[in-house]
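User: Some background: our group keeps a shared notebook of sequences we're curious about, and every so often someone picks one and asks for a predicted structure to add to the entry. Today it's my turn. The entry only has the sequence so far, pasted here. Could you supply the structure so I can complete it?
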Amino acid sequence: MEAKVKAKRRRKGEAGFTLVELLIVVAILAVLVAIVVPNFTGLLGTGQETAGAAEKVIVQTAVDAKMADQNMATTAGVATATDDMTTFGLYPDYMRSPSTKGTYTCDTTGLVDQVTTGYEP
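Assistant: Of course. Here's the predicted structure to add to the notebook entry:
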């Protein structure tokens, strides 16, 4: 009978976590955060590079479409960098606005060169 009473007392006294158990959990969470956070910051840079490259392809495609539509072999090259598609003499319907995130130049052959991506390095 006395053993049963001691067992009940032990169970009642063990209702929460000890400080050591809580510190171990916090340490494990800190290690996981230290591993995961650098991976997410790396993804942001990769995403910006991909977005910049994709926008260059869109601008190049728009210039090529304009040249093909008007049977142009050469263009009047845009010597200064611009982020406005109307400077190239085009504003494709599939773009939301004539402005782009980056800045671009276009030579007389219609080759588009990306000057900036519009994202911080």
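Suggested note for the entry: The chain has one domain: 17-116. The first strand starts at residue 78 and ends at 84.
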